[in-house]
Structures are given as C-alpha cells and as structure tokens.
Task: structure prediction
Amino acid sequence: MIPNMNNEMNIGDDEIRVVGTSTPVESSSSAPGKGPCRRRPPRWVAILAAILLLVALAVILFALLRRGGEPEVDPNEGVFDPGSVVVPTFTSAPPSVPALSKEAFAPGMAPFTEKIDTLINDIPLVVLIPHGGVPSLQVGPMDFTDPSIILAAQAADIRRDNLHIVGAFVLAGEPLAWGLSKKGYCGIIDGKISVGVADNSPLFEEATEKGGYFFRQFPLVKDGELVENEIKNKAIRKALCDRSGEIFIAITLTAESMHDFSQALVDLGVDNAIYLVGSSSYGFYRDKDGQLTQSREWAASPYKYENYILWSVPQD
Result:
C-alpha cells in the first residue's frame, strides 16, 4: 500500500498535472476520452481586448469620415494655378523708388526692359523683353527697390499641400526640389538661358554642377507647335518665351484658356514657351529711363518658397 502523499500531489480523475506548475488545469470535459484544454484567460484580458478593438475601429471611422470631408491634395497642385483672375495694372512706382542709374554701367551698356503692346487672335498681350540683363532665379521676397533688377516675374508654382516648390528646381547649384510633373523647363547656365520641353533634361544636372539655375513649368509651345494642357479654366496667363533666340515674357490682359494662350504664342512666332504663374502673381520691370513699373501693387508674400526669374545689371 502506497503511503499518503501531500494534497498537492493528489490528482483527481478529471485533472492533469502540467510540468513546471503545481496548479491543476481543468479539463474541457469530465467525460472519458476527452482531451484537456488550456486555461481560460482572466476576464480583464478579454475586456481590454474589446476596448482596444473599439478604439481601433473608432480611429479608422474617423479617418474615413475626415477623408470624405477633406479630399486628398494633389502634390502637384499649386497655390497660384489656376488662380483668381487679377488683371495686371502695371502701376508706376512711387517717386521714392530710385531709378536705374546709368552712370554705373560700362560705356555703351544700358540694361533695360522693352515693353510692347500687341494683339494676337483678339488677345491683348504685353511683351516684356529684357535687354542687357543677366538672368537668374531667386527664392524669397523680391526687393522691387533694388535698382539693379530690370525685370522680375514669378517662376515655378508653390505646392498647395506643403508649400514647397512644384517640380525640379535648382538655385545657384543647389537642388531645392525634384519632380517631372511638368515637362516644360528653363535652365540658366553661365548666364545663358534655355527654354524647352522634355521629360528629362541634362540641364538639371548641369545647373547643379556649374552653380546654375533650373525650374519646371507647364509646357506651352515646343518647336513652334502648340502643346495641350489639362488645365481648362480661364485666367490671366503669363509665359517665358524663346523666339529665334530672343527671350521675353508674354502676359495676357484678359482671362484666357491655356489652349488659346498657347495658340497666340504660336501665331506670335514663338519657338518654345513655358508657363509662368499668372493671375495674382507679382512682377515688375524697368524701362530705358530706369523707371519701375509693377504688374500690381507689391504686398508681402506668405510663402517662404515663392520664387522669381529675374534679369539684373551685370556685375563687374
């Protein structure tokens, strides 16, 4: 006869002993032939799991509702395009703004901007041609009181989602943005400006290597042929154009579609042209007398990455 053992060692017919613990585990059934099952988790674990599930469902539902109420923003959508229709006023500068000092120029040099008014296909255009200026890009507020700048216009657009620059952009050899969302390009290398249309342009890398400038915009004209764009609304339009090697900016004085604007540039004899932000964008020029004229009254910009293409008096 086996002597009496401690109660801890006694195992009932409906119990098993788990190795490593002295606590009995209940069988799923007391019927013969039924195997044992694991011990049920404490009730608080089930309650916690239910609470976490409800929280997760609530977060998902909130995200779906918010997405439905606030559609996702296209990363290529800009704050200026298509923009509101603000007709350029070309306001003369106040007397406090200094005129361009021709005494500072080298003999025979007098950089200025020529303004030509024309009508193409019943579209009134202002054509601004810089003479003798050196092209470059600038990021940040434009100082219209700087007498060395003969022409300035906003260049690339600003992303609506994060307020950075739309498309590839190089400033004095430093890339500030990347992207091929817009196939039109402008490259400035060693003071020479190139305007064209291409999916990829070696000028981006060249600008980076040589301390040049580069930006992208909507294409309007390629090799004398109209380029269609998806933007269908009407607004004040502005373009950077190349006509037989002569670079100029063309601006409409009436709200036009991108198609009609591009066709007007083709009929003007433009070889290549890309869009510049229009409508409410800021710009100015100085004529042969050194007097400043603005496309609208200057106002401080809320955009850190607002950028310009400009022509300045050559530095010695």
